[in-house]
Design goal:
Length: 171
């Protein structure tokens, strides 16, 4: 492996410490008693998957905010420039932040004709998954999200959504 830069080494140290603080070590679990290893590994797996779902749900929310923002304020300005305007920040804070993903998707479908049914379905499945954390176990595409098959389906949907919005918003 190539040598890491000073910044990369610092980031790796930070990540190692965060993993240690959160108790998410999974490569070397010899320090955990045999009776607790399975429970520990299950907790690490669940934590990683829940984190991915939360981050991806937030990213989808931002994609929809961007689509709606460009529609309302025009696509001539970059999104960074829109954020510098009081009008856009007020619109975002007073309207967009208060709408759930499902309503943003409904609005986006109205203003952006041609959102493929597969993208809409994927967004709704991820939104349902994100909004149903007490479901045991959370199901995605007919599989527990905590299985490799369930997570692969989820991951494929998130990549499909990302590709769609990247083409749509930043062509």
């Amino acid at each position: 492996m190539d040598r890491l830069t000073k910044r990369q080494r610092a980031l790796k140290r930070d990540i190692d410490e965060i993993v240690d603080l959160l108790g998410l070590e999974f490569n070397d679990i010899g320090f955990i008693g045999r009776a607790w290893r399975t429970a520990h590994l299950e907790r690490v797996k669940e934590h990683l998957i829940r984190s991915a779902v939360a981050l991806d749900h937030a990213r989808i929310d931002e994609y929809l905010d961007s689509l709606i923002g460009y529609y309302i304020f025009g696509a001539r300005k970059s999104f960074a420039k829109l954020w510098k305007t009081k009008r856009f920040r007020s619109f975002h804070r007073l309207i967009l932040e208060r709408l759930p993903v499902s309503q943003k998707l409904d609005f986006a479908k109205t203003i952006q004709r041609g959102i493929p049914k597969g993208i809409e379905t994927a967004i709704r499945r991820i939104d349902d998954l994100s909004n149903a954390p007490a479901q045991k176990p959370p199901v995605f595409g007919g599989h527990s999200i905590y299985t490799v098959d369930g997570f692969r389906l989820y991951w494929a949907d998130t990549r499909k959504i990302a590709r769609y919005f990247h083409r749509r918003l930043w062509r």
